[in-house]
Amino acid sequence: MDSTEALTAYDQQIRQSPDPDGPGGRVERTDGVVRHVGAAAHDWNGVVWSDLDQDTADAAIAAQVRLFGGLGREFEWKLYSHDLPADLPERLLAAGFTPEPAETLMVTEVDALALDATVPEGIELVPVTDEAGVRLMVAAHDRAFGSDGSALGRQVLDQLTAAPDTLAVVVAMAGDEPVSSARIEFRPGTDFAGLWGGGTVAEWRGRGVYRSLIAHRARLAAARGVRYLQVDASSESRPILRRLGFTELATTTPYVYAPGEPLSPGA
């Protein structure tokens, strides 16, 4: 895989030309940024692309804070390591944003993956197509990540209802117990599909569940003729993905702004 070509395609196809994230969401291009504004309170809001420099960055940051603050929405500035200006992270911090743990943008060509990973003994991969399945997905998410996945569950159910062809979700079941969940988001008209989730409860880690979920979703992508798979990888999943053939293209850090936080002086 040509890493430069893949990163350029990702920036152009996914970051600069995103699809609305959920029913009623809208993509806006203004102030040197591409942003997503959700329709419902649980929808994701944030900046996915920026084309800024030393002279325009602070004004663009302040404009996003005013917009989302006026809506009463928390939002995320999804910053990539190659974004400009080079001091954009410091500018976001000065404006009141809080960084969350960095992840690694990893990409592979679907044709380069081995898709024959077996499902571990005692595990069944169950497709999620309805509200009951989403509840299992959220239960696995909550146990694996130790966080509240209820908002994610509402987003996924909305997408499954309104645009089922753009999303596939699967839960790994150990008997009646959901122990992992994962999803793949398809981007029609692009070369990419995104892999999300995959967190596994502690007692099932290291037994091949995550690898089997990657292979399962890769087969779905291959059936649709997708060229690239993309993952925002945590430090735990990065070694597994590297062994499977994924390449690290950049790091990405979510900078989060909560409503009611003051602008920095002069913003």
UniProtKB/TrEMBL annotation:
<feature type="domain" description="N-acetyltransferase">
    <location>
        <begin position="123"/>
        <end position="264"/>
    </location>
</feature>
<dbReference type="InterPro" id="IPR016181">
    <property type="entry name" value="Acyl_CoA_acyltransferase"/>
</dbReference>
<protein>
    <submittedName>
        <fullName>GNAT family N-acetyltransferase</fullName>
    </submittedName>
</protein>
<dbReference type="InterPro" id="IPR000182">
    <property type="entry name" value="GNAT_dom"/>
</dbReference>
<dbReference type="GO" id="GO:0016747">
    <property type="term" value="F:acyltransferase activity, transferring groups other than amino-acyl groups"/>
</dbReference>
<keyword id="KW-0808">Transferase</keyword>
<feature type="compositionally biased region" description="Polar residues">
    <location>
        <begin position="1"/>
        <end position="16"/>
    </location>
</feature>
<feature type="region of interest" description="Disordered">
    <location>
        <begin position="1"/>
        <end position="26"/>
    </location>
</feature>
